[in-house]
From TrEMBL:
The keyword NADP applies. This is NAD dependent epimerase/dehydratase family protein. It comes from Planktotalea frisia. SUPFAM superfamilies: NAD(P)-binding Rossmann-fold domains (SSF51735). It comes from the Bacteria. The lineage of its organism: Bacteria, Pseudomonadati, Pseudomonadota, Alphaproteobacteria, Rhodobacterales. Residues 5-162 form the NAD-dependent epimerase/dehydratase domain. It holds the Pfam family Epimerase. The keyword NADP applies. Coiled coil: none annotated. Keywords: Carbohydrate metabolism, NADP. Gene3D superfamilies: NAD(P)-binding Rossmann-like Domain.
Length: 278
């Protein structure tokens, strides 16, 4: 592949994807709204751009073969705050990709697109949308965009419904954890699979307690290696019992399922900022 674009390159997940993605293409263009992202890897360049600007996305995506779209406002918030980066930004990515003739969009979707499904349901990739927040609603919108642009324009896309790609700090994460190594493998398979059409895949490691089913997308070749069970004894020894009256404990979306619309879900979670530094 000649040129690959990574949006959200200044984010925590983006920081772990930048170096591996340089190995898959002649030129990696990393982009975000930040002024810079530190030292660049060999084969990487940086272009600042606003997802909500079609002109910026046309400039950034020009000449690319594929885009790994990880950029977004990465939390629940008022609808107006998410409208530009998450809703309009997704449209701009797909429309610019169509106009410029890209082959594929690899999208960082989320479990929050289906977060209100009960955790007792072992859900597969064909389950109906059931967002838990405006943030989750934006993920539903982008997934439907991907379906529409595949049907109308033949633009391929893979939508990675990431569960929780962060250090394991809670009982929920024993099932939902996606390690950084497995994230890299997942994105790589989304890029190098010969054909994907419109596909949805759960971003989750090979956890004993994983609450989702990827069997419908075995053709992607994603075979996670890591298992959060290694953390179970320590996590469970210090955890409060689950509350069956709390939808945050009982639904796939976890804390996002229980917060009021427009209120931060991340503020209720213990997320370790281990962003990779260059």
């Amino acid at each position: 592949m000649k040129k690959l674009v990574l949006t959200g390159a200044a984010g925590r997940l983006g920081s772990y994807l930048r170096e591996p993605l340089t190995q898959l293409c002649d030129e990696l263009v990393s982009t975000d709204i930040a002024d810079d992202i530190g030292t660049l890897y060999a084969g990487e360049s940086y272009m600042s751009g606003d997802l909500a600007s079609m002109d910026d996305m046309m400039r950034v995506l020009d000449g690319a073969d594929m885009v790994v779209h990880m950029g977004a406002y990465a939390d629940e918030g008022p609808f107006e705050k998410l409208l530009g980066p998450n809703f309009v930004g997704a449209y701009n990515i797909w429309e610019a990709s169509h106009r410029l003739g890209l082959k594929r969009v690899i999208y960082g979707s989320s479990i929050h697109a289906v977060g209100m499904h009960p955790k007792s349901d072992f859900i597969d990739t064909n389950v109906a949308h059931r967002p838990d927040t405006f943030y989750g609603l934006a993920k539903c919108f982008a997934e439907d965009l991907g379906s529409l642009y595949w049907d109308k324009h033949g633009l391929e896309s893979v939508h990675m419904r990431i569960l929780s790609c962060a250090q394991v700090t809670s009982p929920r994460a024993l099932g939902s954890w996606l390690s950084y190594d497995d994230l890299i493998q997942l994105v790589t398979r989304c890029i190098d699979s010969p054909t994907v059409g419109f596909s949805v895949v759960y971003g989750v490691s090979d956890n004993d307690r994983a609450p989702v089913d990827n069997s419908q997308v075995n053709f992607l070749g994603y075979r996670p290696k890591d298992n959060a069970e290694q953390f179970a004894a320590d996590i469970l020894a210090n955890a409060e019992p689950a509350n069956p009256q709390d939808v945050g404990d009982m639904c796939h979306g976890g804390p996002f399922a229980s917060v009021a619309l427009g209120n931060s879900g991340m503020a209720t979670m213990d997320i370790v900022d281990d962003t990779k530094k260059t």
